[in-house]
Structure formats: structure tokens, C-alpha cells
Amino acid sequence: MQPKKNHYKVVILGTGPAGLTAAIYTSRAMLEPLLVEGPSPGGLLMLTTDVENYPGFRDGIMGPDLMMATKEQAERFGTEVLLATCEKVDLSQRPLRLWLDGHEVTADTLIAATGAEARWLDLESEQHYRRIGGGVSACAVCDGAFFRDVPVAVVGGGDSAMEEAHFLTKFASQVYIIHRRDTLRASRIMQERALKNPKIKFIWDTAVEEVLGDGKVVQGLRLKNLKTQEESTLEVGALFLAIGHIPNTQVFAGQLDLDPDGYIVTPKSSMSTNVPGVFAAGDVQDTDYKQAITAAASGCMAAMDAEEYLESLEA
Ligand SMILES: Cc1cc2nc3c(=O)[nH]c(=O)nc-3n(C[C@H](O)[C@H](O)[C@H](O)COP(=O)(O)OP(=O)(O)OC[C@H]3O[C@@H](n4cnc5c(N)ncnc54)[C@H](O)[C@@H]3O)c2cc1C
């Protein structure tokens, strides 16, 4: 696909909740944005089934249905949607320059909403149960409530693993934290909270070798103790990965300020970046919340910031 114009007031990269919301706001403001879908049109919610915590849907909504409806809402106000990936940017010049599947466009403002991918163990069985929503997830807040009164496992040893495990104790009968080492990376306070919780049990020096199940739902894990090489099985109804995320910021490296983990740095009170006219929204700049509603909210903020920036250019 080719962009219809050579120059845009606003280009938005990403069609997850952040990019789509930025498109709704900027198109309603008559800025005729170009919205670039990237390698995963619709973003991460296309990978899930029921979304039960997005406001406005009493009985929940399927992830792909929510994203399709949001895209149609953005198109209704004149957003141009382009099925392409941004492979290069030059943010050192005005207007900004972007290459989208080989086509160069220029822009007055750019909203980066390229998201972040969860790190996985890269086991075939893990990916199978993840794809079919059978009990492998990288988001306890999103999926924890589906696993009530069954034992579940969390993999990881940092703050997010402790937090996810603690959250899961609300629903699960037992939460196992499986960690490759015998010490945790998590902050002291988070460690103590998890270690004191009677519903949380630690399995140290251990790796998940295989996710076991009937092909439809997770029923257990095959584990290996990395010190003794001993194998064992653990009965659980779900596996939650909490081993970090990889923000999709490779294309901005060397041009936008990134934190040590690769997230775009934005100040607390706005979605601006170190480059005037470039804004970031959603998981690509969010090290803490990573929810559809927070991504959508920051997409709205980035759109309003971009609009204000464009007005300042005209003043
Ligand atoms: C399995 C699963 C279930 C979840 N369930 C829930 C839930 O129930 N409730 C909830 O609130 N949250 C849930 N989440 C989290 C939620 O999906 C994310 O927080 C949200 O999607 C982040 O939105 P985003 O717009 O920042 O990024 P994403 O949704 O990740 O979208 C990123 C977009 O950027 C595009 N992109 C990437 N690189 C480029 C590039 N170079 N050029 C152009 N475009 C690019 C991609 O194609 C994609 O369209 C879930 C996540 C997962 C993985």
C-alpha cells in the first residue's frame, strides 16, 4: 500500500489502543492523520479473547472486536490507515522524515505508539497455549480472574513477578513463583511481601521445560532443577510470564531518548519526547501500567499535545 500524500500534519505509528485513540482525536481535530498499522495491525489485543476491564462493556468484549470498532471509529473521522511498517525515521530535520515500506513521507508531528512485546520462554507448547488463550499469559491483571480456585505459576524474579503473583492470590488456590536462581532481583519490600504471603510458594533454581495440557488448556508444567538436573511435574491451570518486555523502539534508536530498557522517555505531565513535535503513547513509553485503557488515555494525551504543538507553529 502507498500513502495518499507526501506530507502529513500528523503521522501515527501503531494501531493498538494508543495509536487508534490518537487517530480518533487528531482526525476529529481535522488534522487528517496518517495511521500506520505496522507488523501487528490492531496491536496486542488482537491476541486475546475476552477483555473484561475496558470501560463501557458490561459483559466484556473480544479483543479483536474492540480493536476493529476503534479502527472504524478513527476512519469515520477521516483517518488514512496504511498497512505498512516504518523502517526508518530522520527526526533531525523539519519536517520529520519517515520511510514506510520504502515510501518516504514527511510530517510536522509524529506519534510513536509502537507498543512493547512481552518476553516469552520460546517453548513451542508455551506459544501454543498462549495463541489459543488456553492458560499462558504475560498479563496477570488481564487474565488472572479467569483462573479461580486453581493453582497457577508465575515465572520471574523481579518486581513485576512479585506483583503479578500477589495479584493472582486473589483468585488462585495457590501461586508458585518459579525462578531460575536462588535469589530474587525484586526490591526488598516486594520480596518480603511475596515471601510472607501464605498463598505464594517459591520454586528456586528451576526452569520450565514444557507446558503440559490436553491441547486446549494448560494442566501442568514440566520443570527442571538447574542445580540437580532433576525433572518434575507441577499441576497448574495457568502459567504467567513476568520476565520483562521488549519495547518496539529499534527504529528510533539514536534519535529519541530511550531508558536503559529501551522505552521512550516522556515526562510525567505530557507525552512529549526529546525531539520537538515527536510524541510517544502507550506501552512503548509505559514501564508500569501496560493496560489498554492506559494506552488509550496516553494516545489521547499525545494527540492533544500534538495539536497544541501544531497550533504553536502557526502562532
Ligand atoms: C494476551 C494479552 C491479553 C491482554 N489483555 C488485556 C486486557 O484484558 N485488558 C487490558 O487492559 N490490557 C490487556 N492487555 C494489554 C494491552 O493489550 C496492551 O497494554 C495494549 O495493547 C498496549 O497498547 P499500545 O497501543 O501501546 O500497543 P500495542 O497494542 O502493542 O500496539 C502496537 C502497535 O504498533 C505497531 N508497530 C510496531 N512497530 C511498528 C513500526 N516499526 N512501524 C509501524 N507500526 C509499528 C504494531 O503493528 C501495533 O499495531 C493484554 C495483552 C496481551 C498480550
The tally of beta strands, per DSSP, is 19
Radius of gyration: 21 Å
Shape: elongated
Low-confidence stretches: none
Estimate the mean pLDDT confidence: 96
Percent helix, as a range, is: 25-40%
Bound molecules: flavin-adenine dinucleotide
The description of the largest β-sheet is: 7 strands, mixed
How does the helix and strand content classify structurally? Answer: alpha/beta
Query: What is the CATH architecture assignment of the largest domain?
Result: 3-Layer(bba) Sandwich
- CATH homology-level superfamily of the largest domain: FAD/NAD(P)-binding domain
Find the CATH topology of the largest domain. FAD/NAD(P)-binding domain
Query: Secondary-structure element sequence?
Result: EHEEEHEEEEEHEHEHEHEEEEEEEH
Number of helices: 7
Hey, roughly how much beta strand do the residues contain? Answer: 25-35%
Name of the top-level CATH class of the largest domain: Alpha Beta
Total domain modules: 2
